[in-house]
Amino acid sequence: MDPKGIRKAIEEFWFTRGNQKGKLADGGAAGGEARANGHMKTLENLVKQAFLDCGIPEHCIHTGRPYLPGYYRVRKQWDLVVIYKGALVAAFEFKSQVGSVGKNFGNRFEEALGSATDLDAAQKKNGSFGDVPPWLGYVFVLQETDETETEGRATSALFPTDSAFEGLSYNQRYQEMLRRFIGEGVYHGGWFVTTQRNDDGSVTYGEPLATATGRTLQVAIEGRVKLVKAMLGD
């Protein structure tokens, strides 16, 4: 994933959000652009291309919210699913946070953890995906604002909390969330992008988490595809 391709994808992300907000019946007053769909499609296409570049046929890549079985619930929609010769190569979630980060941080964390935990249980309890263990990816885009960059509030609870979270901004908390997801194998590949849409209409972006850049995700995808093909005897 080259920087030019990523920049174009982020610019299209902002364009699509703004365009779809205007098409909502209320102009986006109740929930804004987040109620519109499709703004993550640009990044989804980059991830899809990474699998195509590894020799995965296009018909093996399922988008449009395909379902996979769960354990605690019967099924769950994912954003991108790759199935090659009957093996689940990968399942991806694509999420973004633009504004209202304080209200939605907890929800984003719980969604991500719940989806991965449910699919993992489906494999361990029911063997839903056969002999090739599932491989999960998580892509997240965060708008940088004063709210996301301000030092976090107190992290006290009824019992001692992890001191690593003390003083972290929401941006840093999202990074720590994804760092731990990848480190603990909750998700196996990740991509964390921060971005701003400036007053002059220009768009900037960053990839502040070294373990979750477009490049590291691409390398992880290449390794996963090679492993699955080797296990299948390709």
Automatic annotation (TrEMBL):
GO terms for biological process: DNA restriction-modification system. GO terms for molecular function: DNA binding; type II site-specific deoxyribonuclease activity. InterPro entries: Restrct_endonuc_II_XhoI (IPR007636). It comes from the Bacteria. This is Type-2 restriction enzyme. It comes from Streptomyces cinnamoneus.
